[in-house]
Here is the input.
Amino acid sequence: MNILVLGSGGREHALAWKIAASPLVARLWCAPGNAGIAQDAECVALDVTDHAAVIAFCRTNKVDLVVVGPDALIAAGIVDDLTDAGFKAFGPTRAAGRLESSKSFTKQLCRDNNIPTAAYAHFTDAEAAKAYIRAQGAPIVVKADGLAAGKGVVVAMTLDEALGAVDMMFGGGFGEAGAEVVIEEFMQGEEASFFALCDGEHALPLATAQDHKRAYDGDKGPNTGGMGAYSPAPVMTDAMNQRVMDEMVLPTLRALKAMGTPYKGVLYAGVMITEQGPKLVEYNARFGDPECQVLMIRMMSDIVPALLAAVDGELKHFDLRWYPEPALTVIMATKGYPGDYGKGSRIEGLDEAKQVEGVEIFHAGTKRVDGQLVANGGRVLNVCASGKTVEEAQRRAYQAVDLIKWPEGFCRRDIGWQAVKREQELK
Here is the structure.
C-alpha cells in the first residue's frame, strides 16, 4: 500500500513511525513532515492547505490511504475533498469534526443526548459573558468556541482572571476561535484522555493517557499544547473505560449518525473523573499530541489494518493488542514557549540519547540546515520511554533528556508525577 500522512508535528512522527513498521506499506510519504519524520517516511513539500494539490499528489502517486493528523485540516474539510475525489482518508468529515471545531455544538449534542458534562452557557457578546461569570462566581472555565491549537482554555480561579480571559478572547487573543466563547462550571476531579477508533457506527476503545498542559513543574504557568504525557492513566479502570464508552462515545456516534454525519476516525474524549462519575471535558477529532506518541509506543498490533477498518466501516469484529508496560513522553520546547520563542538553535546529542534502554525520540518542530539539526518551533522534541513501571519509564526518559545538548530548550521535570505517586503509595 501507498500511504500519505498529513502534518509535521510529534503526533505525525509517531504515526509515521508506527505505519512504517507495517509490512503492508510499500511507500510512505509525509507532507510537509520534519527532520525526524524524514527517517521514517519520504517528506514532500506539499502545501496541505491546498486540497487540490494534495489530491493531485495522491493521483500521481497512486496513494491508497491518507492519514490526517492536525485538527485544522479536519475542520477545513480535507477528508470530504479527498473522499469526493475517490481516495480513502482516515479522519472525520468537516461536519463530524465539529465535535472539536465548535465547543457549543458539542455542548448542545451532550445536552440533547444526556451525555454527562459540565453545565455551560454560550456567548457571542463580551458583556453578557461577564455578567454570567459575575453571577456564577469563580473558579470557572472560559473556552474559545473554535480551534486554538489546544490552548484556548482558561481555568480561572478568580473573577478577575475569568473576566480578563473574556476580554482576551473577544479582543482577538485566539483570532477567530475566540469570536464566541463557552463558559463552563469548574469540575473537581482527575482528568484523563480516552481514545476510540470509530467507523461511523462502531467504536473500538484504544488506550488511555494523561497529559500535562501547563508549561512548568507543579502544573504551574500558562496552558500549552501539552508538555508531556503517559499511558495508561491509572484512574481509568476497566469499569471507568466502559462507562466512558456507554455514556459518552456510543451515544455521540449514534447522535452523529442520526444527523447524517457519521463519525469516522479517532475520537479523543477528555474526561474528568468526578465524585459523580466521568464527565466529558471536551472532544477532539484526532489523536492527541503528545498522547499519540505514548499510544503508538504501547500499540503491539499493526496500525494500518485498524485505520482501514475505521475508514471502511469494519470495526465491529476488530481488535488490537497492547503492550502492558506504561510509556511516557517528555516534551522539550524552545525557551519562551508558549509565548514568543526563537528558531534556528542547534540541537545535538540525539544519537546518544536514543541509546538509553526503552527510549524513542519523535520530532515535532525540527529541520535540517546544512546537515545540522535545528529547532523550528515551540514544541521541538518528544523524548519517549517505556518501562515496567511509570517510574522506570520516567527515569529513562529524563536520562535521555539529560544527554541532549540544547541550551535554548526546556522541559518539565515532573511528567508522570500522579502515576509515580500512586506507584510509590502501593509499595
Notes: The chain has a mean pLDDT of 95. The longest strand covers residues 264-274. The two ends are 48 Å apart (CA to CA). DSSP finds 14 helices and 22 strands in the chain.
